[in-house]
Amino acid sequence: MKRIWLVLLAFSCLIGTVSAQEHLRYALIWHDEFNSGRLDEQVWSKIRRSKSDWAIHMSPHDTLYAFDKGDLVLRGMVNDFLPNDNAAFLTGGVWSKYRKTFGFGRVEVRAKFDVAQGFWPAIWMLPQVNHDLRWPYGGEIDIMEHFRDNPTVNQTVHSDYTVNLGQRNRPSHVAYPKYNEGEYNTYSMERFQDSLVFFVNGKRTLNYPRFRDGDNGQFPFSQHDYYLILDAQIGRDRSPYIDTTKMPVELRIDYVRYYELDTKTDVIPEPKEFQVIKAKKKKLRRVVYDVETRFDNPDEYRIVVKCGKATIAGNRQWAESTLAQLVDENGCIANLEVHDWPTCPNRGISLDRCGKKLRFNDLSQLLDEMAFYKLNRLQWNGEGALTEAEKDEIRSRAKELGIEIQTEIVPLPNRDYLDSEGNEEFPASSRIFLHTASEDGGWLYLKGLGEDDMEAMKAFSERYWRGGDAGEGASENGLPDVLSPAGSRLANFREKVAVHRERFLYK
User: Fold this and answer.
1) What is the extent of the structural domain holding 187?
2) Which of 122, 332, 378, 474 has the fewest CB atoms within 10 Å distance of its CB?
3) In this structure, are residues 122 and 142 in contact, taking their beta carbons and an 8 Å threshold?
């Protein structure tokens, strides 16, 4: 217990006054306003016919698609113009399958549709996978469906649990919110690691949570990214008949927007598994260490917080670092679970380019920053305005924080070497995010301890702890491509850095 309070006390010097203005919860990552008058083929493709009940009338014929006053228009029509097609009706639809997927965050669609018996407009999502995954095992997310002349829309969750096991009410998997008929309405869905939350015109309509264990296929929605489907379906909606007198019918899409969360925590680096069990916070009153649980990875750790008691298993340094970030300025913390481990084992900072300038306080501060962001190597040859006693104290402090000091860097084939040099147009953090993290990790050369260096260090920590695909690279102007996974994560990271500047400023 004494150890954790010392760690929290050490990090308390990082905590400044929290801004009264709350940070934005989302960053707009991508959007399509449909103002170009043509379909963006890098994102969308027309849906072709299949045996699925919703796709039996789909057709790519141009008559079913239009752009009007900044809207994408999808039509359902009686087939009286394609004599070689034996379908009684033809419908238009687009999807982002194999072209664009959406991760955790908020998908928002503003749309208007006609009302007619047999018309079935829908805005929905399916999982993007590279292997066979039969429906409904990957889950289906219906952001909006409308049936017949109902005064409500359907917002529904489908999975193995709801479909094959028939568990539709534990918890409830559907809502029937009202909408403004004949007008544009905004339909939204937020996807978290542990819940799906639906909205109509900004009002929350359905919260579908993950059970504690998520067994029996109850919550597959944290396991995949999803592509979006916009379609004007006809038939198969349990209508007694299809009213052809009101055809053609239209689904008009004003825009599609995707906002990425700053994740459920502002911790850097972002934990791989994080779940809030109960959001209401209580004072952190006790910390215990689970010495029975052991992990193969020496950097791996787990934190479980219940009613102000935190239980830590695995790597104490990194767990305590995360705990220090999760405790708010009042010493309170929610009930939560964190399980985390690094993708890259080596996450090193080199002082080769600035070591001579540094004093004892500079190095002490740097070590605290490195521990805070789970960086585990420091290349420092002992240079700087330090006495021998101060050098020994720095080495002792590094060992206590789990940071290995080495005097020189030996180049290795599977390790990256980056520097904190940047400019206003293309900062170092952008380059770091666009650079695929090597399997063994990497080194970041600091030019000093300025703000740019610290932001680069945070980006390095996030990138090399999380790992993963760096995306498509840079666009023509040298900036990150916001449609790529790297651009998406970079925007998310920048929002988190803004939060940290408010919460963890040095005094």
Assistant:
1) 27-261
2) 332
3) yes
